[in-house]
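Hi Prof. W.,

I finally got the Translational regulator CsrA prediction working! I wasn't sure whether to trim anything, so I left the full sequence exactly as given:
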Amino acid sequence: MLVVGRKPGEYIMIDDRIKVKVVKSEDGHLRLAIDAPREVPIVRGELLEAQQKV
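And this is what came out:
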């Protein structure tokens, strides 16, 4: 697992296809913008965990 620190406006690239950008960070809350091809599924962690419990 890679752990990086980013400030609002900064981003990371994954495999030259997926861009994860910090759009807002305040009071312990973080907002991310994810730009990825349509064929790449993006699922929130709590939904994935709920699906795995069934």
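Residues 10 and 21 are 6 Å apart (CA to CA). Does that look reasonable to you?

Thanks,
D.
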